[in-house]
Structure to design on (162 residues):
């Protein structure tokens, strides 16, 4: 398969990967002890129900979007993120929640590169985007340990939004 060519739904590697991620997340949420991908998510560890990932466009660029536009929720800060969690999948269209990047203090960041030196972890949000997975050529799964990563600092400026 190559980028930009029209293929059937089952020939899109990004769509297939997101479908597998969703199945694994749902298995953990349902406390399914026999998930096929338990090496990524362990159903016995409470709170680890997210496989964060990055998606790349057909030119190799990272896809990014914005959360909390207008600053109406939590710390009132709009942010840019390249990190996502799959929520729903229908054919090759997906609802992705935008994961909020945070620094070691738990403050919201705008992150356009995964190696940003201030980036420490991710928090789940209720901000979502609808995407056509056929528009992407690559996906990179990240460690579930990035989500709700424990920080040595306690004074956070916003509340967790799950």
């Amino acid at each position: 398969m190559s980028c930009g060519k029209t293929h059937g739904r089952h020939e899109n590697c990004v769509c297939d990967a997101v479908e597998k991620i969703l199945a694994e997340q749902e298995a953990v949420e349902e406390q399914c002890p026999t998930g096929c991908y338990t090496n990524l998510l362990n159903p016995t560890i409470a709170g680890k129900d997210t496989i964060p990932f990055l998606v790349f466009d057909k030119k190799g660029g990272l896809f990014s979007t914005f959360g909390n536009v207008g600053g109406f929720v939590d710390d009132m800060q709009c942010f840019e993120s390249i990190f996502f969690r799959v929520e729903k999948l229908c054919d090759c269209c997906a609802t992705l929640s935008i994961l909020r990047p945070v620094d070691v203090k738990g403050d919201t960041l705008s992150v356009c590169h995964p190696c940003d030196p201030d980036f420490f972890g991710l928090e789940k949000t209720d901000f979502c985007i609808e995407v056509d997975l056929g528009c992407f050529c690559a996906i990179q799964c990240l460690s579930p340990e990035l989500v709700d990563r424990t920080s040595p600092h306690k004074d956070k400026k916003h509340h967790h939004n799950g």
